[in-house]
């Protein structure tokens, strides 16, 4: 099976695979710079924002300058310290204005606000806690990410398939 693969062809295929990975990384970093967000694209992982967003929706974010106003009703994504998963919720209350503003968030489908999610002793979010504001979405496209995180063996299968495609590809 592999006897027909010349060393030069194998090297070219390996370089093509590396080019694909580096291009994807550069696109991600480019989006990060353009949107001023460390994570310009996120996937909704729970049903806490239904009916606005469903589990598996792919969200596009932008992180406006800290000095620009963030208003009640805006859907934001924020990180809580010691938790790896960003949270997508709506701002329901705002205290103050400008860089010193404080925010209270809540999922549309949740009964209570997010104070239980915040670190101990913290009752509100600062603008600096926010990764970005939602500016658009594509429904259900993120289900691939959910499936890969819920079934780790799928990652191995996908990588094996990608590797086989690279090896078996003829130019």
UniProtKB/TrEMBL annotation:
It is an enzyme of class 3 (hydrolase). GO terms for biological process: signal peptide processing. It catalyses: Cleavage of hydrophobic, N-terminal signal or leader sequences from secreted and periplasmic proteins. The keyword Transmembrane applies. Transmembrane segments: none annotated. It is found in: Endoplasmic reticulum membrane. Catalytic component of the signal peptidase complex (SPC) which catalyzes the cleavage of N-terminal signal sequences from nascent proteins as they are translocated into the lumen of the endoplasmic reticulum. Specifically cleaves N-terminal signal peptides that contain a hydrophobic alpha-helix (h-region) shorter than 18-20 amino acids. Belongs to the peptidase S26B family. This is Signal peptidase complex catalytic subunit SEC11. It comes from Diplogelasinospora grovesii.
């Amino acid at each position: 099976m592999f006897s027909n693969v010349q060393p030069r062809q194998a090297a070219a295929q390996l370089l093509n695979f590396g080019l694909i990975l580096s291009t994807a990384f550069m696109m991600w970093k480019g989006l990060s710079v353009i949107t001023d967000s460390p994570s310009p694209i996120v996937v909704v992982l729970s049903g806490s924002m239904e009916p606005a967003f469903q589990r598996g929706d792919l969200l596009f974010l932008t992180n406006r300058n800290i000095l620009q106003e963030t208003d009640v009703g805006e859907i934001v994504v924020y990180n809580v310290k010691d938790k790896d998963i960003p949270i997508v919720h709506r701002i329901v209350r705002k205290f103050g204005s400008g860089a010193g503003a404080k925010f209270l968030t809540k999922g549309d489908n949740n009964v209570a606000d997010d104070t239980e999610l915040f670190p101990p002793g913290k009752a509100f979010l600062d603008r600096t806690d926010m990764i970005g504001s939602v500016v658009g979405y594509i429904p259900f496209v993120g289900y691939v990410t959910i499936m890969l995180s819920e079934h780790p063996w799928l990652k191995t299968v996908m990588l094996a398939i990608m590797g086989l495609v690279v090896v078996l590809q003829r130019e």
